[in-house]
Amino acid sequence: MIATLEAPTTAPACAYAQPATGVPAPSTEGFVHSVETCGTVDGPGVRYVLFLHGCPLRCQYCHNPDAQGKPSGATKTAEDAFADVLKYKSFIRKGGLTISGGEPLLQADFVHAMFRMAKENGLHTTLDTSGFVGHKASDELLDETDLVLLDIKSFSPMTHKMVTGVCVDQTLKFAKRLDARGNKVWIRFVLVPGLTDSEKNIDGLAEFVSTLGNVDRVEILPFHKMGEGKYRRSGLPYKLGNTPTPTDGEVQRARDIFARHGVETFV
Ligand code: SF4
Questions:
Q1: CB atoms within 10 A of CB 200
Q2: Of 128, 166, 170, 256, which is least surrounded by CB within 10 A?
Q3: How far apart are CA 67 and CA 232, in angstroms?
Q4: Looking at residues 41-63, what average pLDDT do you find?
């Protein structure tokens, strides 16, 4: 007798953690935080950068503390948000569309709908993420993603927790998944004196990155206090008020550690 397989009648308990499948409709709504129409640092070329609201992390140096928490505020359909992107098509033809945040993967369906329309219009797509909820990115979404800017805030689990409030495991898992799929990645690492700059931390990160075959570029971002004013205005505590920006020598030291593992870096 040949056994027949029956579909389970109830979803497995971990179903919420599985990536969505299928293609979301253009009417999918997203919580948009803000827009930068001529961005030059979040991916190659001149880019339309869409910042989404909501982030589960609490990075001590976050520039957008007002984008943290659950996605909230005004919503837009992907169709409406993309109509605005199209107004700048001639400027971003050689760059593209970047979706950042906040954490864009909290609204993975919205990102997917946007990227699908971008690809249909011949635009390059970049996803800027901490990778903490990388499991929410479906393979179909990653197929529409030309580049992932993956922020690895720290390699040391303890430091990562201190800097962001969450553990680093999901980010590293997402990095390996992207490698296995062959998604092109730029790694970004913020160098914060006295916080993320220990030899052990940088060495661990450099060694990890050297094992990945899909990394096109590694950027070391020297810590700066551009976001401090936002904290003051919103009455939020800013923990890094006494932290200096790294000196040229400290940045070079970090670059040298990466170089020891054969990893070229950019600042
Ligand atoms: S991941 Fe980005 S948006 Fe979220 S808290 Fe960190 S710096 Fe801010």
A1: 11
A2: 256
A3: 15
A4: 96
266: CA distance to ligand 1 center in Å?
21
Domains and CATH numbers, the chain: 29-260 (3.20.20.70)
Residue minimizing CA distance to atom 3 of ligand 1: 102
Q: In what order do the strands lie in the sheet containing 215-222?
A: 75-77, 29-39, 47-52, 96-100, 125-129, 147-151, 185-191, 215-222
Q: Burial, 8: exposed, middle or buried (Cβ in 10 Å; 0-12, 13-18, 19+)?
A: exposed
- Whether residue 64 contacts residue 101, with contact meaning beta carbons closer than 8 Å, is answered with yes
Match 């997402």 to its residue by tokens: 174
Say how many residues make up the chain. Answer: 267
Collapsed DSSP state (helix, strand, coil) of residue 52:
strand
* Spatial contact of 96 and 146, defined as CB atoms under 8 Å apart: yes
pLDDT at 2: 33
Give the mean model confidence (pLDDT) for residues 55-67.
Answer: 94
CA 57 / ligand 1 centre spacing (Å): 6
